[in-house]
């Protein structure tokens, strides 16, 4: 386990029995225990009695040798896309891709008009038209606020609108995130729970810590701690946009940026 800072999956706890645990696991103000364990590597998991509640924990470890304990998920990063070498398309895929692109172009032209650019209202109409064709996705469609966030993410020229190329790039991202959502929506309820969301975020290339996962749950989950498809996409759009903005300001790559109040407001208000 040493050096593994990743979130432990459910299977780990199914196949590894606990070596020590609180004897009185009841809803009390304070529970304390003392354990003596042989030298080995251990994972210490604090827990509240009810899920999704905050609590304070004090842990004291006495060891004969130097203690090498560390907190899991203490690094925050995003996977950068790997540039693939251009390969010749397979004959079977060429027609399918061109047909999809042609379909997008026709829908885009019908809604965008002669200028071939869309605002948030028009983007909402396009996305919901396409999403409604996917019967396996139980969603009420994207909201106007979601589409505004998407435009802010993909609007490279600062026009407040998306052209066909920007829209197609956005749709490729949505399709990739859609596959992740459907993978974790095993019961096809149209939602995933907060535990599955943690794994979904990691699969999408975003590596966060526990505090940020808690913030995502508070911000995007409903009262039952479930996240629907619209909120799921909104969360990924925000993560993508915030990481992209931070990397743009982090010129020297030291993980620290300095913003004045104007830059901060421009960044947060348009995101």
TrEMBL record:
Top-level division of the source organism's lineage: Eukaryota
Region annotation Disordered: where it falls in the sequence: 79-100
Record SMART domains: calpain_III, EFh
The keyword Calcium is annotated on this UniProt entry: yes
Gene3D superfamilies: 2.60.120.380, EF-hand (1.10.238.10)
Residue ranges the record marks as coiled coil: none
Domain EF-hand: 172-207, 237-271
Molecular function GO labels: calcium ion binding; cysteine-type peptidase activity
Compartment(s) of residence: Cytoplasm; Endomembrane system
Gene Ontology process terms (BP): proteolysis
Protein keywords: Calcium, Cytoplasm, Hydrolase, Membrane, Metal-binding, Protease, Repeat, Thiol protease
Gene Ontology CC annotation, any one: calpain complex
PROSITE patterns: EF_HAND_1, EF_HAND_2
Family the entry assigns: Belongs to the peptidase C2 family.
Name of the protein: Calpain-3 isoform X6
């Amino acid at each position: 386990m040493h050096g593994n800072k990743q979130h432990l999956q459910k299977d780990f706890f199914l196949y590894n029995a606990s070596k020590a645990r609180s004897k009185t696991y009841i809803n009390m103000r304070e529970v304390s225990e003392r354990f003596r364990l042989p030298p080995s590597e251990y994972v210490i998991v604090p827990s509240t009695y009810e899920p999704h509640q905050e609590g304070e924990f004090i842990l004291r470890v006495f060891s004969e040798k130097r203690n090498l304990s560390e907190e899991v998920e203490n690094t925050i990063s995003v996977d950068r896309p790997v540039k693939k070498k251009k390969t010749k398309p397979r004959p079977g895929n060429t027609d399918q891709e061109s047909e999809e692109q042609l379909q997008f172009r026709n829908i885009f032209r019908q809604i965008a008009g002669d200028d071939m650019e869309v605002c948030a209202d028009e983007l909402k109409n396009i996305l919901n038209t396409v999403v409604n064709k996917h019967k396996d996705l139980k969603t009420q469609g994207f909201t106007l606020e979601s589409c505004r966030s998407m435009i802010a993410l993909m609007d490279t020229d600062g026009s407040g609108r998306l052209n066909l190329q920007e829209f197609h790039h956005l749709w490729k991202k949505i399709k990739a995130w859609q596959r992740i959502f459907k993978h974790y929506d095993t019961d096809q309820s149209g939602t995933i729970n907060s535990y599955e969301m943690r794994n979904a975020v990691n699969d999408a290339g975003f590596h966060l810590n526990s505090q940020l996962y808690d913030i995502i749950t508070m911000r995007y989950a409903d009262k039952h701690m479930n996240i629907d498809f619209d909120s799921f996409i909104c969360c990924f759009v925000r993560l993508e946009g915030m990481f992209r903005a931070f990397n743009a300001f982090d010129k020297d790559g030291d993980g620290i940026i300095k913003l004045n109040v104007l830059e901060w407001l421009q960044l947060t208000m348009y995101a």
